[in-house]
Design brief:
Blueprint (H helix, E strand, L loop, with lengths): L6 H18 L3 H7 L4 H9 L18 H14 L1 H21 L2 H12 L5 E4 L15 E5 L2 E12 L6 E7 L9 E7 L5 E3 L13 E12 L3 E2 L5 H37 L1 E2 L2 E2 L4 H29 L5 H26 L10 H9 L8 H13 L1
Parallel strand pairs: 1-4
Antiparallel strand pairs: 2-3, 3-7, 4-5, 5-8, 6-7, 9-10
Bound molecules: acetoacetyl-coenzyme A (CAA).
Acetoacetyl-coenzyme A binds next to strand 3, helix 7 and helix 11.
């Protein structure tokens, strides 16, 4: 498939690559160990226009297409998948949601600074008992005289500690099941809204993930996003695009694993010659390269469909399903090729495996992606 990238798309890829290599990669190992949030890098991503890539310029964004977003996400995630997810959530889940469904007032107040990188956003759907079964919302929002009052708990929220603006999905009418769910824009610092401690994660360790609690948290009526009862549709529509971002993140990890394996196999000698001369290694590298290419094609295909305003639900689910598996398998093989060296931090590939795992879980597990793909085929 020839995507005939435009000059602008290639320039964005190059800018992302240079930024990732010079400013993200050198400190990625340190951050993986310390689990420190990359504040300075996120600030610079904002300055580069990478936090609101697909938002129109009139709302503070870069006005780019989804293909450009995928190209940039791959490069950033190749250097550090933690930075990749911070960027992906702000772009695909928060800015997309506000741009599609926000009022002009909401766009002016929230989307503009989010797209310009002045504020950071979080998307709050998951709960202790609502992961894959996302309709099972226990967070409730009840009307009061001048707005809404939120009570409940959210779990596994990316950017949960460092975000300024939270899109919170909550039940507004339990009797109506998923049609009784709505979305609210909640500002950090609102009374009754607190975040939990940073989760100590297997991978993507410098991105922050935490729970959130809402106790009689008052939200003004103008902070209802879209319409009452549209919260589940909002979440589903938004996650479709989010899955393209996570597929691109997984692709970055898979590509990094492949490059590390190729480099090491040419350097490492065994039985008197570089291990790259051995067919056992060549076959692994050939399989890795094939998976990386297939993941890239599926991811770009879903992005292209989105840019052409075509239905991309199934394509995005396929891209995420395949790219996340490719990331796991490529990272695993990269460790195998490195042998004992692959099992220690110095050679990066063990981090790739730890970082890859989450791409099979968040924004819909691989099992959920299969449900979405099968439903589209069987309906
Ligand atoms: N796109 C658009 N709409 C969709 C949709 C999709 N992919 N899937 C379902 N819907 C719509 C349906 O059309 C229906 O809408 P209407 O009532 O208007 O017709 C409505 O949603 C309900 O559909 P279902 O009856 O099919 O719902 P369900 O209860 O069977 O659930 C599901 C469907 C696919 C399993 C869904 O619950 C799901 O996607 N679950 C996974 C949730 C998820 O991805 N969570 C990730 C958490 S967020 C995260 O990880 C962010 C982060 O911080 C990184």
């Amino acid at each position: 498939m020839d995507f005939n990238f435009t000059e602008e798309q290639l320039m964005i890829k190059q800018t992302a690559k240079e930024f990732a290599e010079s400013e993200i990669a050198p400190t990625a190992v340190e951050r993986d160990i310390s689990a420190e949030f990359p504040h300075e890098i996120v600030k610079k991503l904002g300055e580069l226009g990478f936090l609101g890539m697909m938002v129109p310029p009139e709302w503070g964004g870069a006005g780019m297409d989804t293909i450009s977003y995928v190209l940039a996400m791959e490069e950033i995630s190749k250097a550090d998948a933690s930075v990749g997810v911070i960027m992906s959530v702000n772009n695909s889940l928060v800015c997309f949601g506000l741009n599609e469904y926000g009022t002009n007032e909401q766009k002016e107040k929230y989307l503009k600074p989010l797209a310009q990188g002045e504020l950071l956003g979080a998307f709050c759907l998951s709960e202790p008992e609502a992961g894959s079964d996302a309709t099972n919302q226990h967070t409730i929002a009840e009307r009061d005289s001048d707005g809404w009052v939120l009570n409940g708990t959210k779990n596994w929220i990316t950017n949960g500690i460092n975000a300024d603006i939270y899109l919170v999905i909550a039940q507004t009418n339990r009797e109506l099941a998923h049609k009784g769910i709505s979305t609210f824009i909640v500002e950090k610092g609102t009374d009754g809204f607190e975040h939990g401690k940073k989760e100590d994660k297997l991978g993507i360790r410098s991105s922050d993930t935490c729970s959130l609690s809402f106790t009689n948290c008052k939200v003004p009526k103008e902070n209802l996003l879209w319409e009452e009862g549209k919260g589940f549709n909002f979440a589903m529509n938004t996650l479709n695009g989010g899955r393209i971002g996570i597929a691109a993140q997984a692709l970055g990890i898979a590509q990094a694993s492949l490059e590390a394996a190729v480099k090491y196999s040419k350097e490492r000698k065994a039985f008197g010659k570089p291990i790259a001369n051995l067919q056992a290694i060549q076959f692994k590298i050939a399989d890795m390269a094939t998976k990386v290419d297939a993941a890239r094609l599926l991811t770009l295909n879903s992005a292209a469909l989105k840019d052409q305003n075509k239905n991309y639900i199934q394509a995005a689910a396929m891209a995420k399903l395949f790219a996340s598996k490719a990331a796991m398998e490529c990272a695993d093989e990269a460790i195998q090729i490195h042998g004992g060296y692959g099992y220690v931090r110095e050679y990066l590939v063990e981090r790739y495996l730890r970082d890859a795992k989450i791409t099979e879980i968040y924004e819909g597990t691989s099992e959920i992606q299969r449900i979405i793909i099968a439903r589209t085929l069987l309906q």
